Amino acid sequence: MSDYTIWHNPNCATSRFVLQALQDAGVDLAVRDYQAQPPTVAELRTALDRLGMAPRGLLRRRNTPHDALGLDDPVLSDDALIAAMAEHPAVIERPVVFGPGGARLCRPKETVFDMLAG
Fold it and tell me: Has the keyword Oxidoreductase been applied to this entry (predicted)?
């Protein structure tokens, strides 16, 4: 098992920057194209717990089916949002990095350096 894992979108400049920073740091790294290999509901729950984040905080709106899925509806439960993320991984914000010191949504991209520093 790798020390670090990145939920990566190769089409995203921010995600590519963070991946390169991790590679340049020489960490033991697993790269997961989270759209090709979507996280399960259980993995999303674990990720949100490690991030200390509610599901709405991990939702991506731009260039996704977010609006078409009605994910801004305030009556949607956390369970419904997590299920939507598992079914439509494009609505998961990226990149998410998991490491020995915790997990971070690396937005802005320079956040990765804080994670690498300790």
Answer: yes
Catalytic residues: 12
**29-33 and 4-8 beta bridge pairing:** parallel
Q: Which domain holds residue 29?
A: 4-117
Cβ atoms of residues 91 and 59 within 8 Å: yes
Edge-to-edge strands, sheet with 29-33: 29-33, 4-8, 96-99, 102-105
**Number of folded domains in the chain?**
1
Phi and psi, residue 53, nearest 5°: -130, 145
Strand partners, 96: 7, 105
Tokens representing 7 are 């939920």
Q: Which CATH number belongs to the domain containing residue 40 in this structure? A: 3.40.30.10
Cα 105 from Cα 36, distance rounded (Å): 19
Structural tokens at position 30: 């697993």
pLDDT, mean of each 10-residue run, the chain (118 residues): 93 97 97 97 98 97 92 96 97 97 95 90
